[in-house]
């Protein structure tokens, strides 16, 4: 073992010892009867609460909360879309589709009604790449719209795919 590495380990051990010692002294001061120690502890706690409140009101904290809300809504939307698609898959998407619904699927995928499945697949991939929600993650309104468009494109593709399978 090199001397530099050994010194680093000793430094870490010393730091850990200092942290443990500080925690023990903090613990003992919590039960101290000395009024000065108790007042210092109260002031430290008050300062800690004030700093936490100030940090919670920063722009970064607010942006983080907003981002978590948007991400949560997006996850909920994808979960609902997944469950709806799974429910449609169980009943057989192509089996119960009306002629107007099938025609709508072709329109959604921007292909003629007599297009073969290879053309449908190619159009599906092009449209999903164009309207994928991740491209609009910075704007929650555009993200929600792109999610809905992507869901409709996927529904149309899955319906036509189910019809083309033997």
Number of strands: 0
Give me the strand/helix succession: HHHHHH
Name the shape in a single word. rod-shaped
What is the CA-CA span between the terminal residues?
68 Å
Strand content: under 5%
In DSSP terms, counting alpha (H) and pi (I) runs of 4 or more, how many helices? 6
Extract low-pLDDT stretches.
Answer: none
Radius of gyration in whole Å, from Cα? 30 Å
> Average pLDDT across residues?
81
Largest sheet: none
Structural class: mainly alpha
Write the layout of secondary structure elements.
Layout: H1 3-30, H2 35-56, H3 59-91, H4 99-108, H5 117-131, H6 140-164
Helix pairs in contact: 3-6, 4-6, 5-6
Protein architecture, described:
It is a single chain. α4 packs across α6 and α5 runs antiparallel to α6. The protein is rod-shaped. By secondary structure, it is mainly alpha-helical. The chain folds into 2 domains: 55 residues; 95 residues, no CATH class. It has 6 helices and no strands. Helices cover 80% and strands 0% of the residues. Pfam families: DnaJ. This is Dna-J like membrane chaperone protein.
Q: What are the main properties of this structure?
A:
single chain; 166 residues; mainly alpha; 2 domains
């Amino acid at each position: 073992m090199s001397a530099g590495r050994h010194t680093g380990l000793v430094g870490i051990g010393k730091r850990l010892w200092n942290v443990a010692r500080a925690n023990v002294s903090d613990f003992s001061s919590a039960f101290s009867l000395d009024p000065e120690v108790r007042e210092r502890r109260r002031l430290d706690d008050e300062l800690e609460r004030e700093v936490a409140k100030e940090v919670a009101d920063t722009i970064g904290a607010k942006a983080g909360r907003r981002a978590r809300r948007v991400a949560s809504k997006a996850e909920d939307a994808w979960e609902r879309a997944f469950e709806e698609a799974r429910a449609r898959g169980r009943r057989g998407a192509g089996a119960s589709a009306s002629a107007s619904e099938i025609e709508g699927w072709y329109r959604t995928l921007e292909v003629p009604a007599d297009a073969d499945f290879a053309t449908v697949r190619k159009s599906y991939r092009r449209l999903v790449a164009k309207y994928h929600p991740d491209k609009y993650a910075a704007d929650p309104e555009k993200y929600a719209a792109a999610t809905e468009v992507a869901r409709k494109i996927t529904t149309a593709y899955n319906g036509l795919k189910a019809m083309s399978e033997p």
